[in-house]
Design goal:
Protein name: Transcriptional regulator with XRE-family HTH domain
Keywords: Coiled coil
CATH architecture of the largest domain: Alpha Horseshoe
InterPro entries: Cro/C1-type_HTH, Lambda_DNA-bd_dom_sf, TPR-like_helical_dom_sf
Organism: Peribacillus deserti
Structural class: mainly alpha
Largest sheet: none
Pfam families: HTH_3
CATH class of the largest domain: Mainly Alpha
Mean pLDDT: 90
Strand content: under 5%
Number of helices: 23
CATH topology of the largest domain: Serine Threonine Protein Phosphatase 5, Tetratricopeptide repeat
Distance between the termini: 48 Å
């Protein structure tokens, strides 16, 4: 706790100039040095300044320790994904900003708020807090600098800038001093998440296992579930279906017993995606139908679940008109700016059902370029193969060869770069 900052805080709060406070106590330059924490001042001078400001240092120290404890508890709630508790703690912390600004806790105060706004997807407050953090950057401790870099990575993830986020996290791992241990689990988890999104299952599994080890030692139950879901996805993509199935069955049981309904249905969806890939469309449909109605209408989970259901119904040759109704429902729910990827997927299914020529034209002119432009290289690879096969059928050897080459290039790069 910096005494000079406390004196400055209460001087400004009492609307006093440095000249007015220093009068009959010390020189203005002497007070300035104390307030800037470049000089402690002798005990008698400090006592007179505090008395003039009517400040009880014992009470200030108690407030400081209380704020310190509140910040740590707030951070822990987010690490343990107890967001309901974090909401309540945030309401209390936001009232303490003025006092926090008078202490050396101000950096952590804004860093933790930044993390909270990221979790809440509050873009406006994220932007505002990021500007504050940039101004505070020169006063950061080594730990705070690392934490700020980690938060920037989280913001990249939230903004769907996955390659930038991955680069940020990988760079952080090259530093990773002992004092950064407090967020190592999150660092490994987020790196695993980025690798999963970028379709690098080997890397995702490696980092997910590191995160899992830390979360298990911390008894961080929600994050254990999240991490095991990443492992399930990784094993599925490596066609290690037995290992993935064991994870999903375990998670279904655990989330049901813990009454984690949202997580339960997320696991069911992931399991259904694997079953679809394995060709077990009936079982996949069963899980997708169980999920139906349990995600908030229009939420990302609701949209993705319905798209999964559309795919399985197409594979099962169900009634086209009924499938078309679900597609139209998805298109109605999608926001043109936020859900462009899912609008494209819904339109792709619609053309696939009702017009093969339009379907392949849409794949070539819209879908493929969108996937490439947005670094969705695994999806782009699948489209390249479909187009190569299509042009082989239609006798367009040049285009067929071109797409086979693109498919090969994407495969060689591991569908990543």
């Amino acid at each position: 706790m910096k005494l000079g900052s406390i004196i400055k805080y209460y001087r400004l709060k009492n609307h006093l100039t440095q000249s007015e406070l220093a009068q009959d106590i010390c020189s203005i330059s002497h007070l300035s040095k104390i307030e800037n924490n470049s000089y402690d001042g002798n005990a008698e001078t400090v006592e007179l300044l505090l008395k003039k400001l009517n400040v009880n240092m014992e009470q200030e120290e108690e407030k400081y320790e209380e704020l310190k404890e509140d910040l740590q508890s707030f951070y822990d709630s987010m690490v343990f994904y107890d967001l309901d508790t974090a909401d309540k703690q945030y309401a209390n912390l936001i009232k303490q900003e003025e006092f926090a600004s008078s202490t050396d806790l101000i950096n952590l105060y804004h860093l933790y708020l930044f993390k909270y706004y990221i979790y809440k997807s509050d873009q406006e407050k994220m932007n505002q807090t990021q500007k504050v953090i940039e101004k505070l950057n020169n006063s950061f401790s080594p730990f705070e600098s690392l934490l700020a870099s980690f938060m920037v990575g989280l913001a990249f993830v939230k903004e769907n800038k996955i390659i930038e986020a991955n680069d940020q996290f990988v760079t952080l791992m090259t530093y990773n001093p002992a004092e950064a241990i407090t967020f190592n689990g999150e660092l490994y988890y987020q790196t695993a998440l980025c690798a999963s999104i970028l379709n690098d299952p080997e890397s995702s599994i490696i980092h997910a296992n590191k995160a899992l080890n830390i979360y298990q030692n911390e008894n961080n139950f929600v994050r254990i579930i999240h991490t095991k879901m990443l492992l399930g996805i990784g094993y599925m993509r490596l066609e290690m279906y037995k290992e993935a199935s064991e994870i999903y069955r375990s998670l279904i049981r655990v989330t049901r017993l813990l009454h984690k309904k949202v997580l339960y249905y997320q696991v069911l969806y992931n399991y259904s995606a694997m079953l679809t890939e394995m060709g077990d469309y009936k079982k996949a449909r069963e899980f997708l139908l169980e999920c139906k109605g349990h995600f908030p209408r229009g939420s990302l989970e609701d949209i993705i679940n319905k798209l999964g259901l559309i795919e399985t119904l197409i594979k099962l040759n169900e009634d086209k008109n009924e499938i078309g109704k679900i597609i139209d429902d998805v298109l109605t729910m999608c926001d043109k700016k936020q859900h462009k990827k899912y609008i494209i997927a819904a339109n792709m299914y619609k053309y696939q059902l009702f017009s093969q020529p339009k379907y392949y034209a849409y794949l070539e002119n819209i879908v493929y370029s969108y996937y490439i432009d947005n670094s969705l290289f695994s999806e782009a690879r699948e489209v390249a193969l479909k187009l190569a096969e299509r042009f082989t059928e239609t006798g367009d050897a040049k285009k067929s060869l071109d797409y086979y080459i693109q498919y090969s290039d994407l495969s060689k790069k591991g569908a990543l770069k």
